[in-house]
Amino acid sequence: MVLGELGGSVVRALQKMSNSTIIDENVLNECLKEITRALLQADVQFKLVRDLQMNIKNIVNLDHLAPGHNKRNIIQQAIFNELCKMLDTGEPSFMPKKGKTSVVMFVGLQGSGKTTTCTKYALYHQKKGWKPALVCADTFRAGAFDQLKQNATKAKIPFYGSYVESDPVQIAVEGVDRFKKENRDLIIVDTSGRHKQEAALFEEMRQVSEATNPDLAIFVMDGSIGQAAYDQAQAFKQSVAIGAVILTKMDGHAKGGGALSAVAATKSPLTFIGTGEHMHEFEVFNVQSFVKRLIGMGDLSGFIDKIQEVEYQQPEHMLELLDGNFTLRMMYDLYLLKGPMGQALSLLPGLGAKLMRKGQEKESQAKIKQLDNTDPKLIKDSRIMRIARGSGRKVAEVMEMLNELNEYKQRAKILSQMKEVKNLKKGGMSSL
Ligand code: GDP
To answer: To test the ligand 1 pocket, which listed residue (107, 109, 114, 116) has its Cβ within 8 A of the most ligand atoms?
Structure first.
């Protein structure tokens, strides 16, 4: 889960509040204090955090609430609204359209994840029916073309580049022309980066932009830089007409919250986030879905979107899941947040929050490795003791894990009864 620590802390604070018998000013203050601390630790700017806290306190006036009002819901809703406000990055200015040629130029500093993100972006669209192509106009970094070529080949996406030509503008123009002739509808141009912002970088970006006339320039930024994203986004915005931002390395980086809020503060539309080194670790950014997951409300629309990839890549899990089954193998994938199923399930109400905590417990991954696909109901005491002995774990730990599996099984049953999931089943998998 993206921003695991922040999400985990926010969920814990809300949970603690929910567990209180009476919700009064003290309980609310305590909850807000914990959320504030978590946001500051995620490198969110002090002023933004203070505003958020004040706004929530102004909205939630516990003394004036008529009896019968659900205080927990009101507080949770206020926190949700304020976090959405804080992370609202504005509407994207341009979205490529399928079947109509669009040129998208990627810019950013070296090491930000630009080349990796170009292919992720291409693959994301290819999976949804676009015909993307990649052009490597990064002649500054040795090996950039090889990297793009390797990624593109793996993802079966056509690419263009040169080992001999050193003029990025020429390569960009040739590549774009070639793919226009081939009727590719999404031509992605990877440009050079530099170690830091400097005049030569901005000049080169400007030249490539003038020569290829892109429909959209996407600025790729390393999310682990936290608040510093504000100055970087402003500097790039002033040099090129940036239409969208992608934040990378949002997996497990403590400062991701700072980067998100900083991008939002520049009102640069954030369209995707990178959540890992692998090609599929890439998500559409939608502020409401994101905040829902962050505070443990689940994100059913994200789940339905993601489950399409489970069908494509892990069909065996898909069938089991829609039928309300849950196996140890699935739990293992889930702990590792591996593959699309782990990602899809993390979007479900209740599960996402639990996974955020689990993700931090590396040993839980090791624990589960000790078990096979047996139905836990059939695992007898003697077997539990054997597993515990064999894995060097306490019996209580093995039992706890089996209990957890039962909990997931119950959730899978509930999931299979949901209207949306029933519709998926009714429509047949092929309709996904
Ligand atoms: P470029 O110099 O901007 O083109 O950056 P690269 O695409 O070569 O990426 C730099 C490093 O960041 C590589 O090791 C990538 O695998 C890694 N990377 C890119 N995106 C992500 C991401 O979302 N998460 C993580 N953890 N690593 C990433």
So the answer is: 116
